Structure formats: structure tokens, C-alpha cells
């Protein structure tokens, strides 16, 4: 008995690991923002630790990275979206399939901050909620020509859900780049674990409900049996039927 209990417990834990591996450890991040704010530079600094002065517009690029986080392997998929040539269909697909977003603006460009607000509206509309993981990034913080204040950005984030945070970065000087990705991965992981727990809780609830129902059905059947036994308990049914048959024959 003990052995089987042990096997069952192990099977359960292995199942849990498999579920985690398949659904929890795959993370898709989309990087959105106005053209030229430094989205590609941020990604390249994070992945390859390089910085290019030349500006080359992106259509759409896709990077995959494997990292170790909380003693587990995570597969990170980073989508580098176009700032200049935006395709609504591609954007919609990215928003629907991604778990979290880096919304980048440049601190020296007011238009790029307005673009972030516009993108936020689109994301909220497509997702249908505003509590998904978002990291607002004010890039090029090394520049002295600031036009977007930290206060403005903080206010924008405060109006969003509990999974929105704000950071200022510089891909030129590698400031807060690693931290940005760590933050978004943490926000996504927290959300995933919570929804996973919620789902498991629902399954457990249904399980207990089913068990309770089965138990009540068993009780009812038992009760019926008891009643039947009580009714016919004292009578020998065979002799009862025989006597009836005899009666019929006699008639
Ligand atoms: N000073 C400074 N310049 C930066 C920084 N990050 C990027 N740049 C420069 O900004 C320009 C645009 O950078 P990209 O990374 O190509 O911008 P992008 O957002 O990917 O642009 P699109 O692909 O067109 O949407 C390049 O010339 C970079 O060298 C930064 O942190 N500081
Ligand atoms: Mg780019």
C-alpha cells in the first residue's frame, strides 16, 4: 500500500513538472514603440552585448533565448516590432500571442511617448483587460535633451494594472538593460503562476464537488436498500410469491 502511494505521489509530481515545462516556461515578449527609439538596440544589447550607431529600420525580427530563472530553464521568444512600417495584422497577432510587452519611448522625443499611449490603448482593446505584464521603458536616458519627465511616465504606469512597471534605460551605455528583461520575465512568471494556481484550484473544486455528489448518490442508494430491506426483511419473498401463485391456481 505504501509503495503504491509513493508511486502515485511521484506520478503526480512528474505530471506537475511536465505541465510547468510545457505551459509555464515558454515566454513570448513583444517590443513595441515609435521608429528609432532604440528597440533593436535594447534587444541586441541584451542578447549580444553590442551597440550600433547606425540606424537600420526593422520590419519584424524574432529572437529566441534560453535562460535559467528560479532554478528552471525558460525559453524566451523576443519579437522586435517595426516602429516605422507598422502592419496592423502583424501587430494584432503579436499582441494576441505574447505574454508581456516592452513599450519603448525615447526620453528626448515627445511623439514617441504619445505613440506609447496609443499602443497601450490598442493592446488593452485587443487583450480586453489592462492587468497584463507591461514594462514601460524610457530609452536614451544618456541624452541631455530630455523632453519627457520621469513623473509623466510614472503617472502613465500608475494608471495601468498591478503588473505594469517603469524603467529608464540606455542601450548605448548598457544601463538597466538586463534589469528590464529580468523585470518583464518576473512579471510574466508571476502572472502565469497565479493563473496556473487558479486553474488548479478550480480543478480541485470540481473534484471535491464530484466526490461530494458521488458520496450523496451512494448514500441515497444505501438508504433505498435499507428501506427495501426493512419492507421485505421479515417476509420470505419466495414463499410469498409461491403462495400467491397457489392462490391464483386455486382460483
Ligand atoms: N544616445 C543613444 N542612442 C541610442 C540608444 N539606443 C539606440 N540609439 C540609437 O538610436 C537609433 C535607432 O535605434 P534602433 O535600435 O534601430 O531603433 P528602433 O526602435 O529599433 O527603430 P525601428 O526599427 O525603426 O522601429 C540608432 O542610431 C541607435 O544607435 C541609446 O540608449 N542612447
Ligand atoms: Mg528596430
UniProtKB/TrEMBL annotation:
Record flagged with keyword Membrane: yes
Membrane-spanning residues: none
Xref: InterPro entries: P-loop_NTPase, Small_GTP-bd, Small_GTPase, Small_GTPase_RasD
Where is the protein found, in the record's own terms?
Answer: Cell membrane
> What sections of the sequence does the record tag as coiled-coil?
none
* Membrane-topology annotation of the record: Lipid-anchor
Sorted keywords for this record are: Cell membrane, GTP-binding, Lipoprotein, Membrane, Methylation, Nucleotide-binding
Source taxon at top rank = Eukaryota
List, alphabetically, the Pfam families matched.
Ras (PF00071)
Which Gene3D superfamilies does its entry note?
Answer: P-loop containing nucleotide triphosphate hydrolases
Family (UniProt): Belongs to the small GTPase superfamily. RasD family.
Q: What is this protein called?
A: GTP-binding protein Di-Ras1
